[in-house]
Amino acid sequence: IVVLREALLFFHVKELRDLALTLGLSTKDNKGALVESIVHFAATGKTLPRTKIPKISCAERGKKYPLKEET
């Protein structure tokens, strides 16, 4: 599994997405998440649940978030 993870790191994101699509995995993640998803599927045969970012942690489109003066 370690060798698989290291090998997948040399793939381009497009290649990882194609592989994930072939395996029936989500293709909407970044490179690191795609690699982890593929490795987990290879090890267990199960898909990883997508982690959902809490709404309170997400920025709202069009809203300005000023920095404090001391930063």
List its traits:
71 residues, mainly alpha, 3 helices
Mind explaining what this structure looks like?
The model has no long low-confidence stretch (mean pLDDT 91). Helices cover 45% and strands 0% of the residues. The radius of gyration is 17 Å and the shape is elongated. It starts with a helix and ends in a 27-residue tail after the last helix. The protein contains 3 helices and no strands. It has 71 residues and is an all-alpha fold. Helix 2 runs parallel beside helix 3 (31-44).
Overall average pLDDT: 91
Topology order in helix (H) and strand (E) letters: HHH
Number of helices: 3
Shape: elongated
Gyration radius, rounded: 17 Å
Find the structural class using helix and strand composition.
Answer: mainly alpha
**Main beta-sheet annotation:** none
Report the span from N to C terminus.
43 Å
Low-confidence stretches: none
What is the strand content? under 5%
Q: How many DSSP-defined strands? A: 0
Write the layout of secondary structure elements.
Blueprint: H1 2-8, H2 13-23, H3 31-44
Helix pairs in contact: 2-3
Short précis:
The chain is an all-alpha fold and about 70 residues long. It has helices spanning about 1-10, 15-25, 30-45. Helix 2 (about 15-25) runs parallel beside helix 3 (about 30-45).
